[in-house]
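Lab channel / #folding
Pinned by the channel admin:
"Please post every new chain as: sequence first, then the C-alpha cells as a reply. Keep commentary short and put observations after the output so the thread stays searchable."

First post following the new format, from NK:
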Amino acid sequence: MVLGNHVRIVSRTEDPVQIAAGPIIEIANLRKDYRLGDETLVALENVSLSVAHGEFISLVGPSGCGKSTLLNIIAGLTPKSAGTAKLAANEIVAPSRQIGMMFQTPVLLPWRTNLENVLLPVEVFGLSKREFIDRARLLLDLVGLGPFIERYPNELSGGMQQRVAICRMLLCDPDVLLMDEPFSALDEMTREFLNMELLRIWQERRKTVIFVTHNIGEAVLLSDRIGVMSARPGRLLQVIDIELARPRTKATLVDPQYFRQVTRVRGLFG
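Reply from TO:
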C-alpha cells in the first residue's frame, strides 16, 4: 500500500510467541552484577518497569547508569543476576524475533550491499531469504533509500547508514524495538530528520519502543513516558508522563508546552 510518497508495509511475519494480554514488557526487581576480579560491580539494582503494547518510552540518566545494560537484558543478549524480565509474559532467556535492536552505530558489514545488510537477521534466525527480500526492498523504499539498495555502506552518509540499520531492525516485524542512542553520533539536522522519520514509522506501525538517549529534548519529542535513572548502581528513580499532544511534528519543537516538558524533566536532575 502506498501513502503519499511513502511505502507502508502492512503484512507481518508469524510471531513465535503468542502476545498475552497486559504489558508486553515486564521488569521486576531486576539486578545486574559484574565480577571484576575479587570485586562485584552492581550495574543495575531493584529496577522495575512495565511497558504497554504500542508505548514509546525513553530512558535518560547519567553515563554509566546501566541504561544500555537494561536494554541488553530485555534483548536477551545479557543475562540478569536477579529479578524477572518478561516479554509477553514469557521469561526472557535469549534473543527473540519479537524484539529488534538498534545500536549507537549502524554496525553494517562493509562487504555486503545495503539490501544484504538488511537481510542479515534472516540468516541469523535461519529463515527463508526468498520470503523476506521483497519486504527488505519495501523497507528501504520506506526510508527513502530505494536508489541505494545495491550500493554499499561506504557509499552512504552516517544518517543513511542508520536508516539501513532501522530497516534491518524492522525486517522480521518485531513487536518491540530497542534503540540504544541510535542518533547520538549524528549532526543536529540529520538527528532531527531521523527523529521525525522514527515518529512517522511509529505512528504508522505502533511498535512498542524503548529508547535510550542522553538528549532530554529528544526524549520529550518522541516519548509517551520517560524513565529517569540514577547514577550507578542504576535505579529507576521516576517514570513520568509526557503531557504533549500527538501526532508530533517539527512544529512541536517550537511549542511552549514542549519547552515546559523539557524543563520539567531537566529539573529532575537538579
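NK: The CA atoms of residues 122 and 193 lie 28 Å apart.
TO: also worth noting, Residues 1-20 have pLDDT under 50 and may be disordered.
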